[in-house]
Design a protein that fits this description.
With 455 residues, this protein is an alpha+beta fold. It contains 12 helices and 15 strands. β3, α4 and β4 form a beta-alpha-beta unit.
C-alpha cells in the first residue's frame, strides 16, 4: 500500500467492524479437511520465496528497505524475474519498468492480469506487495503442476515503485499504465542529481517512451491483486480472507493560516493575529466535521509548519494539510465543503486568514461485483471464511481500475501493523490468499468473455 508522498502509514485507518458483512462460514472440521486436501498452491514454496526476497534490502531490525529505484530494488527485481522465467513465463519489462510475465491461453482473448509490487517503504516489512507478487508467481507454478491451460492468456505484473520512496511520486508503474503519470516524472532528478531516466534504463525501461506503457481500456480482461490488509479487521475477526469492496478516494489540500508575527512579550492578547491558535482550532474542526456523519470516512491533519517558530514570537504563518478519505467521493466533497466553511469562521474569530489549495484528488476505485463474487465463491470452495471491507490504503489496483475491472483479495496483517519491520502475515495466511487467487483466476477465466449469456 502506499501513503501519499511515500509516508503512508495505514495501521489503524479503518478498524471499525460495524457494517462489515461476514461470508458464509464453515465448521472447523470441514475447514481442516478442505485445507488438507483442497490446495493447489504450495505453502512452503511460497514462504521460501518470501524469505529469499526479504534478503534484498534486508535491515538488522528484520524488515527491508527496498525502496523503488535503488540497488536493493534492482536486485529484488532480478530475483523475481528469475522466478518468473523458472515458472515458464515469457518476461518483458515495459518502458515504465513494470515487469510482465506471460503464460499463453488457449483462446485469442485479452489477458487476465494479476500481481502487485515488490518495492517497500524505508524500514518496511516483508509482506506489503511481496505476498501479492510472489503469490501470483506461486499460482503460475501451481497451474503448471495441474497442467491447466486457461482460455485467457495470464500475465503476472510487478509494478514499478508503488510506495513512492524516491522522486516524489508513488504508484509510478501503474500510473504509467493508466496514463496518469505526472507529465514531468520521467525528467525528474533528486538533490544528488540522480535521474529517474537513468534508473528506468537500469531497470530495462525507457523514460523517453514512458507514454507507451499506457494500457488501453479493454485490452486486458481484468486485474486481480492479492495484498496484506495493513489494518486489523481480518486479524481481529480471525477471518482469513478479505473481499475488498473498493479503494478509498483521497482528497488532499494544503492550507495556510496567515496572521502576523509579532513580539510575544509586548503584543497584548486582544491585539494578536495568532496563526497557530487559528490552525489549532482548524485541526479540531476537521475532526468534528469528519465525525459528524456515520460511516468509515477518515480525515487527518498529519503535519504542521509553524513560522517563524520561536518561543518569543507569535506565529505569523502556519501551513498544514487536510487529508480526507472515503469510498464515496460525494461524501468527501460534502465534508470538505463544511470544513472550509468552518475555516472561514475560525479565521474571522481569530483575525487570521485561512486559505486552502484546490484538492489533489484521487478518485475512489470500486471493485467489480462479479470479481467480488468470484473471490467469495473461491474462498468458500477452499474452506475459508470471508469479510467484505474497503481498503483505506492506496494500491496499484486503483490505477488498474482506469483500464479494466478489478478485484482485490486481502489476507490478515498481525495486529494491523504495516510499513514496519513488525509487519507479519503467517505462511498459512499467505498461502490461503494465493489459493484464493488461483481459484478466482480459474473462475473468472471461465466466466469472462464467454459471450452475452455469461455477463
Ligand atoms: Zn502495497
Amino acid at each position: 500500500m502506499l501513503g501519499r508522498k511515500g509516508k503512508f502509514i495505514v495501521a489503524g485507518l479503518c478498524v471499525c467492524l460495524l457494517g462489515v458483512k461476514m461470508g458464509r462460514g464453515q465448521d472447523p472440521k470441514a475447514k481442516q479437511d478442505a485445507a488438507a486436501t483442497n490446495r493447489h498452491v504450495k505453502q512452503d514454496r511460497l514462504w521460501n520465496t518470501l524469505q529469499k526476497l526479504g534478503e534484498f534490502g534486508k535491515n538488522p531490525e528484520g524488515g527491508v528497505s527496498r525502496v523503488g529505484f535503488t540497488e536493493a530494488d534492482l536486485a529484488g527485481r532480478a530475483y523475481v524475474m528469475g522466478l518468473m522465467r523458472e515458472a515458464g513465463l515469457d518476461v518483458r519489462v515495459d518502458p515504465a519498468g513494470n515487469i510482465f510475465g506471460r503464460r499463453p491461453g488457449s483462446e485469442k482473448l485479452p489477458a487476465l492480469l494479476f500481481g502487485s509490487h515488490i518495492d517497500s517503504v524505508p524500514h518496511g516489512g516483508n509482506f506489503d506487495g511481496d505476498v501479492g507478487s510472489l503469490g501470483a508467481i506461486e499460482v503460475v507454478r501451481a497451474l503448471n503442476e495441474a497442467h491447466l491451460t486457461t482460455r485467457h492468456p495470464l500475465e503476472v505484473v510487478v509494478w514499478t515503485n508503488e510506495e513512492g520512496g524516491r522522486f516524489y511520486s508513488g504508484l509510478v508503474g501503474s500510473s504509467a499504465a493508466a496514463g496518469i503519470l505526472p507529465p514531468d516524472f520521467a525528467t525528474r532528478q533528486d538533490d544528488n542529481g540522480e535521474k529517474v531516466s537513468d534508473w528506468l534504463t537500469r531497470m530495462g525501461g525507457d523514460a523517453s517512451k514512458i507514454a507507451a506503457a499506457k494500457i488501453a481500456p479493454g485490452t486486458v480482461s481484468g486485474y486481480l491483486e492479492l495484498h496484506i490488509e495493513q489494518g486489523a479487521n481480518l486479524d481481529e475477526a480471525k477471518v482469513p480472507i478479505g473481499v475488498v469492496t473498493g479503494i478509498v478516494g483521497i482528497s488532499l489540500r494544503t492550507c495556510t493560516a496567515s496572521g502576523f508575527a509579532n513580539h510575544a512579550g509586548t503584543t497584548p492578547m486582544n491585539k494578536r493575529k495568532d496563526s497557530l491558535a487559528a490552525a489549532s482550532k482548524a485541526v479540531l474542526a476537521v475532526r468534528e466535521e469528519v465525525r459528524a456523519e456515520t460511516g468509515r470516512q477518515v480525515g487527518t491533519v498529519g503535519w504542521m509548519k509553524i513560522e517563524p517558530g520561536a518561543s518569543n514570537v507569535i506565529p505569523g504563518k502556519v501551513t498544514f494539510p487536510v487529508e480526507l478519505r472515503d469510498l464515496d467521493a460525494d461524501k468527501v466533497n460534502r465534508i470538505a465543503d463544511r470544513i472550509l466553511k468552518r475555516f472561514e469562521s475560525i479565521g474571522r474569530e481569530e483575525n487570521v486568514e485561512i486559505s486552502c489549495t484546490k484538492p489533489d484528488f484521487h478518485s475512489p476505485a470500486l471493485t467489480a461485483s462479479a470479481f467480488q463474487d468470484a473471490i467469495r465463491a473461491s474462498a468458500r470452495e477452499a474452506g475459508l471464511n470471508t469479510l467484505d471491507l474497503p481498503s483505506g490504503a492506496g494500491h496499484d489496483a486503483q490505477n488498474a481500475a482506469r483500464f479494466t475491472s478489478i478485484g482485490m483479495i486481502f489476507v490478515p496483517s498481525r495486529g494491523g501493523i504495516s510499513h514496519s519491520p513488525l509487519e507479519y502475515t503467517s505462511p498459512e495466511q499467505a498461502a490461503n490468499g494465493a489459493e484464493v487467487l488461483y481459484r478466482t483466476l480459474v473462475r473468472l477465466d471461465a466466466q469472462l468473455d464467454a459471450g452475452p449469456a455469461a455477463h
